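note to self — DONT lose this again. spent like an hour looking for the file last time. sequence + predicted structure for the chain T wanted, 272 res
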Amino acid sequence: MNATPLGVYLPTDDPDTYESTDLANAGWYDEGQHGGALAALIGGHVESVPSLAPMQMTRFTMELFRVVPLIPLRIESTVVREGKRIQVIQVRVFGNGEEMTRAYVQRLRLEDVGLPQGVGEEASNLAAPGVLPAVDPDAWAHGPQGKVMAHRNAIEVREIEGGFQVPGPGSIWVRVTTPVIAGKENTPLQRLLFTADFCNGVARLTTEPNWVFMNPDLTVNINRLPTGEWVALKAVSYYSTDGRGIATGTLWDMKSFLGQSTQTLFLDRAEG
């Protein structure tokens, strides 16, 4: 594409089908989608699923069966547990007739019940994004120069501590600058899910190029949705000698704690 796409995904005449654009690209594949972009697409789609009472997502679990190419994606949503307090939705994502991804979403009743005496939200103590320097999008994270990618062209990043080029725990602010679905305003849930997928990149334990630490899944537990455009992620990773690992992080906005994100990691030496 010569012009920047109007969104990470484009709506089609079918409300359950979306056209993937270059902005869904991940830098670690020749042509494969970023998990955060895909999670945000699914999350936004599920928000339109009816419920018996006002509800909000409290858990999102996504299984990435294979690398998802930049092709039209059809989403099938099925309520597998209906109720006025708890609802569970199964989401299946298809491309070229194959199931690419499956997700499970839990939503809970939304009602102001207050908090027990002496209990309060944990306040954020992170440096504000406005006082931190912007990263160079052309150099941040993995991927060839000049290629349009989700983590360079669809978001804005501020590194709080550590960062993609620094091994060990790290924390970042993320602002989604492009509509996830063209023509629609990004929702707080989409901003949260997009950010949640960066655990293993921000908190990788090595910068050696001959190591692979891919995540075949993503689980996000949501305490509340963010206010404002910026969402912070404080992440840490753990590796095992048997080729596994876990990347996990807490999510924040300028006010307080939002939730946590966990990725199972497939750890291996890169070929070639």
